[in-house]
Amino acid sequence: MQTLTITTPDDWHLHFRDNEMLAETVPATARCFQRAIVMPNLVPPVVNAAMAMDYKARIEAARPVGSSFEPLMTLFLTNETSVQDIVDAKKAGVTACKLYPAGATTNSDAAVKGIKALYPVFESMQEQGLLLLIHGEVTENHIDIFDREKVFIDTHLTQITAAFPELKVVFEHITTADAAEFVAQSNEFVAATITPQHLLLNRNDLLVGGVRPHNYCLPVLKRNTHQKALRDMVASGNKKFFLGTDSAPHAKHKKENACGCAGCYSAWSAIELYAEVFEQLGALDKLEGFASHYGADFYGLPRNTTTMTLVKENWDVPEQVTLADGTDMVPFYAGQTLQWKLKSAFQSA
């Protein structure tokens, strides 16, 4: 196969950041994705409808001329989030709310302490039809970092999904066989996103031969048996699993230091990275469902009506990209060769 044409895809989990970053991150995503779920962990976080709409306007202002890219906005849940915040968010057009256990990832210190305290908010979300997006890790220091996803499932996620059986829940950026099994066995209101890094890499790629900061993300890369479980799941074509890059830009100097930031900036090559995985798995026929159909279906949104075409052509991911203010960033898979390249996007079907 030398060309592959699929329905235009969406990214159901990413980080644009804000201000000067937007001139880089928004066009990088808008080159091939029609829509994207935008994470709210800014400084300060996006905690209400007014902040979400202001942020949306800044994103739209950074779109390339003529682009029809649509950001789908989310709220950052805190212990101060109220039922009225949920009602207001739904009215304003917010798509979902994000649950970060406090300290779980970048800019999440203001997040939730005591998840059960949010059950009235979850009840309102179920009534209003707002999705709950979950960073599924516990953050207690005594829990091994490689076990935190499974412990979250056992301690919190099973209880949330049982208490709110019709609340749509997306288990974000899953990394373990445990998470894949949980989602696969749950009812139709539970789904998951999977990133390119968790399909392409395992913890050897982070730690063997020295720490590789640009492969450091949270949840952290797991052992190869968990990687295989994720790869097997996407190759199966299970409709509960769909594309979410978790693309997360950080300045090079903030990644390459003693307390390096977590996150892989994959927007530069996102759809090509997924094509690489699906070809490795002999499952290119499953890419369209994963990238273009299943997420829209789960969110209750129409599938895109345009197409994009990838061509079999080697190209190298840039070693770094430079922002307008001169800041350098290193994209995920920097300097490595990919075999599929975007040829055209947003073509009439």
Strand order of the largest sheet: 5-6-7-8-9-10
Number of DSSP-assigned strands = 14
Order of helices and strands: EEHEHEEHEHEHEHEHHHEHHHEEEE
Low-confidence residue ranges: none
Helical percentage: 25-40%
Shape: globular
For the report, how would you describe the main beta sheet? 6 strands, parallel
**Helix/sheet category:** alpha/beta
Tell me the Rg in angstroms: 19 Å
Q: What is the mean pLDDT?
A: 95
In short:
The chain is α/β, with parallel strands linked by helices and 349 residues long.
Give a description of the structure:
The protein has helices spanning 22-30, 49-61, 83-92, 119-128, 148-163, 177-185, 196-200, 204-207, 224-236, 252-255, 270-280, 287-299; strands at 3-7, 11-14, 35-38, 70-72, 74-76, 96-99, 131-134, 169-171, 190-194, 241-243, 306-316, 321-322, 328-329, 337-348. The protein is built from twelve helices and 14 strands. With 349 residues, it is α/β, with parallel strands linked by helices. The mean pLDDT is 95. A hairpin with a 5-residue loop joins strand 12 and strand 13. The strands form four sheets. Strands 5-6-7-8-9-10 form a six-stranded parallel sheet. It has a three-stranded antiparallel sheet with strand order 1-11-14, with helices on one face. Helix 2 packs parallel to helix 3 and helix 3 (83-92) packs parallel to helix 4 (119-128).
